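TODO from last week: model Phage protein.
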Amino acid sequence: MFKDKEKGSMEDLISKKEKLRREDEELKKLIDETKFEKNDAKALIIAALTTIVPVVLIACLLFYLLIKFIFKF
């Protein structure tokens, strides 16, 4: 079914997948072991809000302008 070249590439692909799986397991282990500091939750919330709020406001503005254009208030 596979030629010799393709077998080599399939073996490489499997070894790359295995390497990625091992790296993923190591990263998950490190994340689980990481402890949050006192103000980390506040910092994460502020970062999320400063990222999400402007996008939501722009989307609302575009929706408002579209409705205004369609119904010509």
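Done. The CA atoms of residues 23 and 29 lie 10 Å apart.
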